Structure formats: C-alpha cells, structure tokens
Amino acid sequence: MRNDPGDIGKAIGRIPSGCSILTCAHGGRSTGMLASWVQQAAFDPPSITVCLKKGRPASELVDASGGFALNVIGEDPTAMFKHFGKGFAPDEDAFAGLDVEPSEFGPLIASCIAHLGCRVVEKVSVGDHDLYVAHVASARSNDGAAPYVHIRKSGLTY
User: Fold this and answer.
1) CB 130 within 8 A of CB 51
2) 10 Å Cβ neighbour count for 43?
C-alpha cells in the first residue's frame, strides 16, 4: 500500500454506495438534496448514518427540525439526478414538478422506491462534512424494486 492521494481516492471510490434524496422541513421551509453517503449503522434501534457537506442549506433545516426523510432512488436515477443534481438555493422550491407527500420528517417523493423517516441522535464533524446518526422512526418500501448502486472513479470527489 502507498500513501498516494490518487491510490487512496481510487480505493475509496470502490466502496459501493446508493443514492437517495434527503429531504427536510422546518418553519415552513423545505428542501431536498442528493445524498450518496448513507449507510445502515445499527439493528436495534434501526439506525443509519448520512453525511452532508458543511454549508449545505439542508443542514440548517435538519439541525433545526432534528430529523429528515430519506427517499431511496430506484435503479434508474436519471430523473432524480436531473432534478436534484444542480442543488437549490435556501428559498428555492426543490420539489416543483414532483409528486410529493408531506411527512413530519420531510417531503416523501412518490417515484422513490423506499422512504425512511429519521430522527437525528448525534452530529459529528468529520473534515469537510458533518456525519448525522439517526434512528429510523418510520419507513415504507416498494417491494421488488431495486435500488440504484453507485461506484465512483475516485473517493476524493463526488
């Protein structure tokens, strides 16, 4: 093994991830963003982790509300990538043109294959990102639908 940034990036990039839309709402505002660093963290209570780049508008709403919804993207991510790929300004409508349902955690996107309502139990600063640990308080799933799986060329960039 070598301490070379190129080798490190390639090796980290081989760790598969999915892609979800993290949604959140607080005080009459809501937003959504692509989240690729999501992982199950515990069985009991059912828990996940998700990382958000520091300064993202979603972070403010997650911190204020204490929760978020995770909308898991199916195996064809094209529509969700086109919609959420550019990001949204804090007061921009992130859900214009989408079929969404409100929830206490954040909007649920109808075209996604699974939805998790999550309550944050811990936030840890990790370099240029914040790691949120959350208990899954509610969920639903479209049985039989396959999730999108992503492999990056480099683990040092999105």
Assistant:
1) yes
2) 7
**For the structural domain made of 20-141, what CATH number should be given?**
2.30.110.10
Cα angle 77, 71, 15 (rounded to 5 degrees) comes to 65
- State how far the Cα of 86 lies from the Cα of 12, in Å rounded to an integer: 24
Residue 3 CB partners (closer than 8 Å, separation 6+): none
Cα radius of gyration (the chain): 15
- 74-119 tens-digit pLDDT: 999 999 999 999 999 988 999 999 999 999 999 999 999 999 999 9
Instruction: Please tell me the pTM assigned to this model.
Output: 0.94
Q: Are 130 and 117 in contact (CB under 8 A)?
A: no
Residue with tokens 């898991």: 72
